[in-house]
Amino acid sequence: MDKNNLKAEYKKIYKKIQIIFNKYDLINIKSDYSDEYNYEISKILARLNNIKSLNDIHELIIEEFSKSFSINKSEFHNNEIVKNISKEIWKAWQESNLNKEKP
Q1: What's the pLDDT score for residue 62?
Q2: What is the pLDDT of residue 32?
Q3: Has residue 30 got a pLDDT over 80?
């Protein structure tokens, strides 16, 4: 994949993840701005190439949000919102042209 296509693919997956986080609003920010979770999205996106499963994404989200918002990880583990976010990001990643594991 050439550089321009790679940039375009990263923009697409970034936007998809941004929409997912804003839809669920995990931390209850309730903002009119779409960039509230951009820092966490960037951190997650940078590590997606190392993700091998839905559980890996789930753990990554928990790790990044607990660091960013100083919340104990245990508060996220059985959280239905985190599970839903994880499923949607996993699906978006599987559909992405950036996914190295894609057949």
Answers
A1: 94
A2: 67
A3: no
Q: In Å, what is the CA distance from 65 to each residue of 6, 7, 10, 26?
A: 27, 25, 21, 9
Spell out a b/e string for 30-69, using b for 16 or more CB atoms within 10 Å of the CB, else e. Answer: eeeeeebbeebbebbbeebeebeebeebbbbbbebbeeee
Half-sphere exposure of 50 (CA within 13 A, CB side): 8
- Indicate the pTM of the whole model: 0.86
